[in-house]
Every structure is written in C-alpha cells, then in structure tokens.
C-alpha cells in the first residue's frame, strides 16, 4: 500500500475536511485563488499568531504595523515594481496557454530564474526550445520569451472607467507599507536602530503559472519583517536573522531534514546577499521563505520619489545615515501547506487505513473534541456540554455527538485533533472520563477534575 504524501492526497483531504477550497467553485472556479474553510482558517490563524508572538511580542526590538493594501501609486514606481516586477512568459501558439519560461527551462534541467535579464532567458529558451513541450497541450510551438508585469491594477479613486488610466495597484508585497511608514514609526515610538517592523497582510500578483495548490496563488498573505540597521552592521544582523529564522521553523514543528538553505546566485543589483529557506514539498525542495539583505535601496528610493528625507540620526554614534534593511518574508499559505505535508500520515490499523494529521499540538485547529457516548441520553449530553463549556475559553474545542465513537475518532484524526474526551455512563457514577491520544490512539481514564492539568501539561 502506497502511504507516501502526494499533492493529490493533500488537496483531497484539505477539501473534504474543510481546510482549503478552490475559489468560486459553484461558478466553475477562479484560477489560482483559494478559500480557507472552517479548519483552514483556524490553522492559518495559529500560524499567524505563532509568527506574531515569535517575531513581535517576544522581541524588544521589533514592533508591529498594519498598513493598507492600497497606497499612493508612485510607491510602486519607487520600488521598481511598475518598471521591473515581471516574470518571463511565452505563449503557446497552438493552445494560447501562457507559461513561465524559467520554470519550463528548469524542468529540462537548464538553470534559469525570473531575476535573469529577459535577453538572457530568451537566448536560453531559443537554444532549448526544441526540447520543451507546452504543459497544457504538449505541443512545441512557442512565441519568444517576454516580460510580463505581475502588479494587479485597479481603478480605485479613478472614475474614468479605464483601469489603465492612472491605475492604483493592489500591493504586490506588504513590505512597501513598512518602508513608507518608517518615519512615522520612528517619530511616534521609542524604537532605535537596530530595530524591526513586522506585518501580516494580503498581497496580490498576476502570477502566470499558478499550479501546485496554495503554493503559488494570485491572492495570498505574507508575514514580513524588515529590520533596519547601521550600514556597517547589516551583514552581522543578517547572519543573526538567518539563524533566528531557522530556529523559528524548528519551534514551529518542522523537521530539520525537510528544510534547507538555498543561496541565490542571481541577485537583484542592490541586494548584498539572498537566501531562501526551502521546504520539501511533495514535488521536492521549494521556496518557503526569503531572507534577504537589501542594502539602503528601499529607503533611498522612497526618499527620492517622495521628496522626504528618510535618513536616520543615530544619537548613539552621532551620525546620520540611510538605514540598511534585512528582511524575512514568508507566505501564510506556503506555511499552512508545509504544515499539512508535515502532518499528513497514513497508517494501517487492522484492516483499515487511518489518515491522521499529526500537527504539532499548538498548531492543531481543534485542540480538544468532547463526545457524549450516546446522543440520545440527555444526562450524557448535558455532562458533555458542561465539560465543553468549561474548556472552550481556553482551548479551541469541538462538541460532537454524531455517529459511533470510532467514526468520531477518525473524523478528529483527519483534522488533527490531539485529544478526544468521552463522557460515558461511568462518568455519571465516578466522575471519570476517557482521554484518547491522536498519535498513539491509547485511551486513558482520568478524573474529570484532573483534565485541565492534563491538558495544560500536554499543550506546553
Ligand atoms: N518582500 C519580499 C518578497 O515579497 P518574494 O520572494 O517575492 O519576496 C516572499 O516573496 C514570500 O512570499 C515567498 O517566499 C513566499 O512564501 C510568499 N509568496 C510569494 N509569492 C507568492 C504567491 N504567488 N503565492 C503564495 N505565496 C507567495
């Protein structure tokens, strides 16, 4: 029996159990956009809460921000997105599918990425075209490679009816909101360099090739932290940030053998160094997070384009300089996807196959499920409700009285609930309950009064 983790199995479980749904399904779908269902939204929230705690609340040197999705359009000119935020694309002349050229080259073993100049990519594409097939129709008749801008335009505040006339943009990354608020944050809080500003929020990109489930979508959420340093301290802080981000993934519960560093060979002109943290998704290692040393490019550009001097007066060294920036940037969806892959387990139990999501307990969407043994016994239901009510403000709980206990266990296994607690007839006699462990499937009988301490001990 093949119990390996495949993308098809993850997609199927995610849909069946209410983690992730394709968008607009009743209308035939909407490409590269996904919705998070009842358990997906809890998992997402746990990811964001953990990141926020790790990145902001437990750090004295990092503060939070929530900037708007829409910003002055000139910001995207300053950042380079209007001119250069693009992927190399080729169109299949047979079926008109548009595909990323760097990815098609990678698939036949040619080293290429989206940061290469388009002339270079096109040269590689022409040299290798004969070996490449269109992923949609399998034919081999392509246009030349050309750049396609990924910014999503809107007519916000423009009533002419033409989206191309003075467009405003849905942000392509959240960090620009951090850069343009740098002065407001330094003026209004007690931060001093070195310090960071972090935020979680939606970003939008007109991705050309959006396959691989929630790995690459056109609407997604980023968790980004930008750390402002003295110019001569940038690389020292960068090494610290790299170590910190690796530790974060271990603390999140990802196995170290499923993570690796990937150093960028092709850097954008202003970057000092760039690494990705890759996770072993079902198709192999691929980017989960970027950790980049960006130099003074961002604040210099925004100073130039806005006319506001964003240099910093360092009262400790009595010098004025343009802060350098190092960043950590990761997608919520890619983290959720990694956690689903990491947790997905199929086990043989007797003649059955048990599917269980062995999430780190702190990440589980539901922490405790409470069952009355039988739904038609009011005294069992009342006692189970009472227990549910006593736990619900501390743990995300689910009350379930439908189907036999075995089926209820399997359902909770599939959503990764660490503990199921059953109220039965003995409970009414001696106040004991059974606590069933998701991973070992063992059942322990304990006194109902001992449950809070049991849970506290197991959810540290
Ligand atoms: N501020 C830097 C920045 O945005 P990026 O490498 O383009 O850098 C950072 O994106 C992270 O955002 C990626 O490592 C990934 O986790 C996530 N991300 C980027 N594009 C995405 C997409 N289309 N769908 C889902 N996540 C995406």
3D architecture notes:
The chain is of the alpha+beta class. The protein has 15 helices and 23 strands. A seven-stranded mixed beta sheet has the order 3-9-10-16-13-12-11. Helix 2 (38-57) packs across helix 11. The protein starts with 6 loop residues before the first helix and ends with a helix. Glycyl-adenosine-5'-phosphate is lined by residues 173, 175, 205, 207, 216-217, 220, 222, 224, 287-290, 327, 329-331, 333-334.
| Strand residue content | 25-35%
Enumerate the spans where pLDDT stays under 50 for 5 or more consecutive residues: none
CATH architecture of the largest domain: 2-Layer Sandwich
Helical coverage, percent range? 25-40%
**CATH topology call of the largest domain:** BirA Bifunctional Protein, domain 2
| DSSP strand count | 23
Describe the strand arrangement of the main beta sheet, using strand numbers: 3-9-10-16-13-12-11
Number of alpha- plus pi-helical segments = 15
Structure ligands: glycyl-adenosine-5'-phosphate
Q: What is the CA-based Rg, rounded? A: 26 Å
Q: How far is it from the N-terminal to the C-terminal residue, by CA?
A: 36 Å
In one word, what is the shape? globular
Quaternary form: single chain
CATH H-level name of the largest domain... which superfamily?
A: Bira Bifunctional Protein, Domain 2
Largest sheet: 7 strands, mixed
CATH class of the largest domain: Alpha Beta
Mean pLDDT, to the nearest integer, reads 95
Structural class: alpha+beta
Concise summary:
By secondary structure, the protein is of the alpha+beta class. It has helices spanning 7-16, 38-57, 74-78, 81-84, 101-107, 118-128, 175-179, 182-188, 234-252, 297-306, 332-343, 378-391, 405-415, 425-430, 451-458, and strands at 20-22, 34-36, 62-64, 86-91, 98-100, 146-149, 152-154, 168-170, 195-204, 219-229, 259-263, 273-281, 284-295, 312-314, 319-321, 324-331, 344-349, 352-357, 368-372, 397-399, 419-423, 432-437, 443-447.
